Amino acid sequence: MAQKGDLLSYRPDIKVLDATIRDGGLVNDFFFDDEFIKALYQTNVKAGVDYMEFGYKADKEMFDVDKFGKWKFCDDDAIREIVGDNNTDLKISIMADVGRCNYKQDIQERSNSPVDLIRVATYVNTMPAAIDMIEDAHRKGYETTCNIMAISNAKESDIMAALEMLGKSPVDGIYIVDSYGSLFPEQIRKISEQYMEIGEKYGKYIGMHAHNNQQLAFANTIESCTQGVSFLDATMSGMGRGAGNCAMELLLGFLKNPKYKIFPVLQFVEKYMVPLQEAGVVWGYDIPYLITGHLNQHPRTAIAATKEKRKDYSDFYKEIIDKD
Questions:
Q1: The domain spanning residue 153 has which CATH number?
Q2: Global pTM?
Q3: pLDDT in tens, 62-96
Q4: Euclidean distance between CA atoms 276 and 75, whole angstroms
Q5: CA pair distance 98, 128, nearest whole angstrom
């Protein structure tokens, strides 16, 4: 597939989604104060970001509301307290996980909600349930995407079958998700071509959500972009689960569309992200995340090692490979 665009041009089809609250919330159990959220919202508006993801629509019967901040649940009223009527060009998104969301009850009609986009997160083996969620959100009037997680651990034939199922569904977009941060740009190029073929066949856009275990989140994001992927996820200072994500400041610095402005992001990072890290909230590249990414494993063991402030990297490596 031919490269789309070059370093001196920009593609108007590209959209940027800020996932700081949603992916970053996995680091601090979604305990962000309202000042932080309002400032992030205003920053995204000023920076020209297209979508802002407020968190998950988690089932309150499955998850204890006292153990998580409110952005684990994303009540419409809580979002309205931040955005009001959202009279801006910025659209609001939330994520709904297969098996962790009472979507028929908790996701209201679009006409009654401040949310524009429902992103359904699924593994390949729960695709039928994901499509039911997509159809429900579509009927209610929302834009929809499907984020297929952990594709580096899935069979290519299963991924292609899932893509065909999604192509025939009402979903608007399909996301490549490097959940374990294990993929390299050459692999992303091939995967992007596969997804783009389905996207062009069925009229779906393709998105990219990268993790930074091998310090490739930004590289993989822009590699997918060159292959025609148009919805790009990023977070402020790369804040996200484990090694984190593609940094917003890197992505906006790369994109040439004059609507995107890096300066408001730098101001936000200086005022809010630096103090967050200084207060002890931990994310970003570290050796344990490199190891799980290198071995194509879920980062849960690396997250535990980081919390324990382990520096015995060789012992950690031996423990991980002994489990295989």
A1: 3.20.20.70
A2: 0.97
A3: 999 999 999 999 999 999 999 999 999 999 999 99
A4: 24
A5: 10
